[in-house]
Design a protein that fits this description.
The protein has helices at about 5-25, 45-60, 90-95, 170-180, 190-195, 210-215, 215-225, 255-260; strands spanning about 35, 40-45, 65-70, 75, 80-90, 100-110, 110-120, 125-130, 135-140, 155-160, 185, 205, 225-230, 245. By secondary structure, the protein is of the alpha+beta class. The strands form three sheets. Strands 4-3-5-6-7-8-9 form a seven-stranded mixed beta sheet, with helices on both faces. The chain has a five-stranded mixed beta sheet with strand order 11-10-12-14-13. A two-stranded antiparallel sheet has the order 1-2. It starts with 5 loop residues before the first helix and ends with a helix.
Length: about 260
């Protein structure tokens, strides 16, 4: 598939994030209750209403496109262009009042992420990545979307949302990589990937990631100078197994893989 004109698609993603933020913000720190889904992950009315808002806006502008969302599944499965949505990535953080969740909006062309947006609707921070162009960042605290050129894994800041995501066979690989890095921080969900794109974090290792968790992240980090692969160093695809390795400096890939695959 030829690459579509990205400018109107970026405008649509931006408008969708604006609309979702307007839905989400009134629920933040408002004593919201959450339901448990079949996988024991929480979901709220804010998640559902925000996704419905995004889906309606995209469908009105691009009725021929596919839309896959965490809460409401897939529409137009045969479409070559497919939007992938996670209205609130980090619902646990959201329902406990921590502003480290985010809205993720991605566009895939034949399964390849070509556009990604990370939006933090409370802090007003937003990252937009698209194929062939540098990632943009806007926010009240300043910063430039450029990863840090950390040349040594031993000096790297490692991050993971929670080690609870690692199944038992994954834990030795996590332990080896953690031992090889300088320091580890936990929590953050998609916000941590935004920080990696700002050069605050060097390595993120996670597993059990669904496509709506990583699709928007790939163009954001690539456009900031980093890389996102699976634990074998392969590009992520809709068929990937949920293992994600994000690096601010792609030159660290071989070193990281040597610990993961030992």
């Amino acid at each position: 598939m030829a690459l579509p004109d990205l400018e109107p698609l970026i405008r649509t993603a931006t408008a969708a994030a604006d609309a979702a933020g307007s839905v989400i913000r009134p629920f933040f720190r408002a004593g919201l209750t959450a339901d448990d889904k079949s996988d024991d992950s929480p979901v709220t009315i804010a998640d559902r209403n925000a996704e419905q808002t995004i889906r309606a806006l995209i469908a009105a502008q691009y009725p021929e496109h596919g839309i896959l969302g965490e809460e409401f599944g897939l529409d137009n499965p045969s479409a070559g262009l497919r939007w992938v949505l996670d209205p609130i990535d980090g619902t646990r953080a959201f329902i406990t009042g921590r502003p480290i969740f985010g809205t993720l909006i991605a566009l895939l062309a034949d399964g390849v992420p070509i556009l990604g947006l990370i939006d933090q609707p409370v802090t007003g921070e937003r990252w937009i990545g698209a194929v062939g162009r540098p990632t943009s960042f806007t926010g009240p605290f300043g910063g430039t979307a450029r990863t840090r050129p950390c040349a040594d894994l031993g000096a790297a800041e490692l991050s993971c949302t929670s080690t609870e995501m690692f199944e038992t066979p994954d834990l030795p690989a996590w332990t080896r990589l953690q031992a090889a890095t300088r320091r580890t921080t936990f929590g953050g969900d998609c916000y941590a990937y935004g920080l990696l794109a700002l050069g605050q974090i060097d390595v993120i290792l996670e597993s059990t990631m669904k496509i709506w968790d990583w699709a928007a992240i790939v163009p954001v980090i690539a456009g900031a100078g980093g890389s996102v692969t699976d634990w074998q160093g392969r590009a992520l695809t809709p068929d990937s197994d949920g293992h994600v390795l994000a690096l601010g400096n792609p030159a660290l890939l071989d070193s990281a893989l040597s610990h993961l695959c030992a």
